[in-house]
């Protein structure tokens, strides 16, 4: 179950995958720049099982070369749709009335 304090995990995983880095390679880069992290901590962050603090978010943004805001998902309404998109209203189909079996046999 995703942790409410970690909304960037999936995006971190996607950015790492796009660059062709392993989790170990990302951990090494984070450690070189002063952010202590193990591969198991990174795996927990990517799977949204572990919360992320503000310093870790800054390090991720620096290592990936993106803005901090780029690590967060696009803004969404409470219903889950992206802001500014047209909302499709689901409609029910009308069912054809079926005759009871005994009435159909009489005709």
Please provide a written account of the structure.
By secondary structure, the protein is mainly alpha-helical. It has a domain at 9-69: lambda repressor-like DNA-binding domains (434 Repressor (Amino-terminal Domain), Orthogonal Bundle). Helix content is 43%, strand content 0%. The chain has helices at residues 9-19, 23-32, 39-46, 54-64, 101-106. The longest helix is centred in the first third of the chain and has 11 residues, at 9-19.
The second-level CATH architecture of the domain at 9-69 is Orthogonal Bundle
Question: Mean of residue pLDDT?
Answer: 82
Largest sheet: none
* Low-confidence residue ranges: none
Individual helix count: 5
Gross morphology is elongated
Structural class given helices, strands, pairing?
mainly alpha
**What is the rounded Rg?**
24 Å
| SS elements, strand count | 0
CATH topology of the domain at 9-69: 434 Repressor (Amino-terminal Domain)
Which CATH first-tier class of the domain at 9-69 would you pick?
A: Mainly Alpha
β content, as a range?
under 5%
Helix percentage range:
40-55%
Give the CATH H-level superfamily of the domain at 9-69: lambda repressor-like DNA-binding domains
- Through-space gap between termini: 58 Å
The H/E string reads HHHHH
């Amino acid at each position: 179950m995703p942790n409410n304090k970690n909304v960037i995990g999936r995006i971190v995983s996607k950015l790492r995958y796009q660059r062709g880095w392993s989790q170990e390679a990302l951990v090494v880069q984070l450690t070189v720049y002063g952010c202590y992290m193990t591969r198991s901590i990174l795996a927990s962050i990517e799977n949204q099982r572990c919360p992320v603090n503000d310093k870790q978010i800054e390090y991720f943004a620096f290592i990936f070369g993106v803005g901090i805001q780029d690590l967060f998902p696009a803004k969404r309404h409470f219903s889950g749709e992206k802001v500014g998109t047209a909302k499709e209203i689901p409609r029910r189909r009308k069912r054809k009335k079926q005759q009871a079996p005994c009435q159909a046999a009489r005709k």
